[in-house]
Amino acid sequence: MALSANALKWLIRFYPPLFFQRIWVKNIRSDWRGVTVKVNKSLLNLNYNRSIFGGTLFVAADPFYPILFYQIFTKKGYNIIVWMKSAEVQYMKPAMTTLTFNIYIDDKTIEEAEHILNTDGKYTKFLPIEMYDKKGDLCVMVFCEVYVRNLNIIK
Fold first, then answer.
1. What pLDDT does 155 receive?
2. What CATH number is given to the structural domain containing 15?
3. 45 within some domain
4. Sorted alphabetically, which InterPro entries does this protein's record hold (predicted)?
5. How far, in Å, CA of 62 to CA of 112, rounded?
6. Does any domain span residue 155?
7. How far apart are CA 87 and CA 74, in angstroms?
């Protein structure tokens, strides 16, 4: 789907699984290499300890690497499929306030993925997401295994 980063930001903001968990996309870079996300603490995502429910934090991490990789490589002319193959979540400290995280995909990662897509046809890699509270303390680490497949190479 051909959308601008700004249009996709607004579409994602009101996507029900994210909206009702109070996950808010603050920014998507126009070059599709990064995103800034806020996970707002609210009555809709509290657990019994009054911290943000762990499932909400996992949901917040789930879509963004696949979206970015998809946009980067379709803009380069690739016919691909992308999804998050697996994830590992480490809860470092209870999320007692709103959390934020930034994702940035650097040139080296894009070049590595492109080389592997052109030779093997499938690229998988674990990439980190660090979620910080309002004080700047690390609360959650998520390691997302991204799967990208070049549909023009059959193996």
1. 62
2. 3.10.129.10
3. yes
4. DUF4442, HotDog_dom_sf
5. 22
6. no
7. 24
Query: Which residues make beta-bridge pairs with 99?
Result: 39
Quickly list DSSP for 74-105. Answer: HHTT--EEEEEEEEEEEE-S---S-EEEEEE-
CB 11 within 8 A of CB 3: yes
pTM: 0.93
Residue 94: φ, ψ to 5°? -60, 140
Cα 101–Cα 3–Cα 77 angle in degrees, nearest 5: 95
Residue 9 has phi, psi (to 5 degrees) of -55, -45
- For tokens 């009702």, the residue is 20
Q: How big is the CA angle at 133 (ends 128 and 135), to the nearest 5 degrees?
A: 125
Q: What average pLDDT score do residues 136-150 get?
A: 97
- Number of domains the chain is built from: 1
End-to-end CA, the chain: 26
